[in-house]
What we know:
The chain is α+β, with helices and mostly antiparallel strands.
Amino acid sequence: MTDKLRSNWRADGTLRHIGTPRWLVDDMLQTLMAAFEDAGHQIYAVGGCVRDTMMDRHVHDVDLSTDALPEDTIAIVESLKFKRSSWKAIPTGIEHGTITAVDPVGAGPYEITTFRTDVETDGRHATVAFSRNIEDDATRRDFTINAFYANRQGEIRDLVGGSADLAARRIRFIGDPVDRIKEDYLRILRFFRFTASHGNQDDGVDADGLAACALLADGLTGISRERIGAEVTRIISNRDAAPIVGTMEQSGVLGRILPGASVLTLARLIDLEESYPIEGPMVAPNDMATRLASLGCADVADRLRLSSAAAKKIALVLREAGSLTPAHALAYRHDYWPAVHCLLLRWASLQQPFDETVLADLERGASAKFPVQAADLMPEYTGKALGDRLQFLKETWIASQFEMSKSALLERP
Length: 413
């Protein structure tokens, strides 16, 4: 934490002020929040934008929370103008109190949600009642670090004791973890995701939260595969996902959503990823599909409702990881990075070290151009015979590591 951010804490260890992040002082957001205040309403930036600002992280979205009812929110937003253009209010989730405000210059959009309290929950969906009380809204959220509220001046309200947890990078459920999970069983996976992305795993996972996740893991059977897939892909995309996936396995959660899955190959895969020689602006060869393939769940793509592209990538790396296809041929057939992923999974599966000597072969294979064209074989070969001959010569050329010339290939019996 920078000294500038540290100054925003009170002496008693609670958050005092968010400072002046660019997103908060933006003219459009200030105009929007001021309009609610002028209409006699409370309005706060809430959740991730406050949390990530205090953790000195990039803020992607700004969500707002207000005591204004949805119809009042719509009226306030639609009353705003910038030059000759009007703001738009889109009822994206009006039954749950959410209105999306779209400003004329594209600074947003901003999701504005009325303070809520849960009336009834079934582990997947909640029936809510709107509230004028910010405490009601805070106590229905999932984790203490996600329940910070900042007003237009940047002053923070922490109603659930999240300040100490944020300082310690501790992911802790608000109130009783069992109660919070029973409201929405997807919070089990969110607990692991936030622990991986925002927690301090060196201090271990929150014991009460972990115990509740293990106890209630069966509740994930009622959650759609799409929602589970969205959380799992985010978990496994963390730079060092192995410790948290290992904790998921030990708690029984991993096996509940991906039967047969294990962290062992994933841990070795991540070590190999870290061995790749990064230079300049290059990024590490982390690949979500390859990491999922390493878990060993036979139908992982279907269980997580992955895209067809991700499913194809998983099938590719699993097939080639179990083959003897050399590096240069992998890169020629699949391109450079897919070939890297195939090799990383192969090495991880076989407990082999990173082999830096193959990088030159990968580069050569990815840039190689087959020198023979169909016209070179006509009219002697036509139809199926032409295709078979082309394929034979291509395989011969690949086996030579691209060294055979066009003339040598054409003379090949």
